[in-house]
Amino acid sequence: MIRIGEFSKLVQVPVATLRYYDQVGLLKPIEVDRFTGYRYYSANQLPRLHRILALKGLGFSLEQISLVLAEGLTSEQMRGMLR
């Protein structure tokens, strides 16, 4: 498990962004320490984060990204969302 600060440095995404992605349900930590509130991430979460960042770079809103990740939309459906 990797604490949020270390994960942030590893993926070059600000801690505030990771916290926001947690808040909106895009990228939940694998564990949150119930005493300290520290968020912990795993290397297994890298593909999901990379997909989020790639879709954001293509112009998708976070709401649209949430739909894409939840529903596994096809490329054609995703193109339609950008129009």
UniProtKB/TrEMBL annotation:
Keyword DNA-binding: yes
GO MF terms held by the record: DNA binding; DNA-binding transcription factor activity
Gene3D superfamilies on file: 1.10.1660.10
Entry protein name: Transcriptional regulator, MerR family
Pfam families: MerR_1 (PF13411)
Domain HTH merR-type, chain residue ranges per copy: 1-71
Keyword DNA-binding carried by entry: yes
Keywords on record: DNA-binding
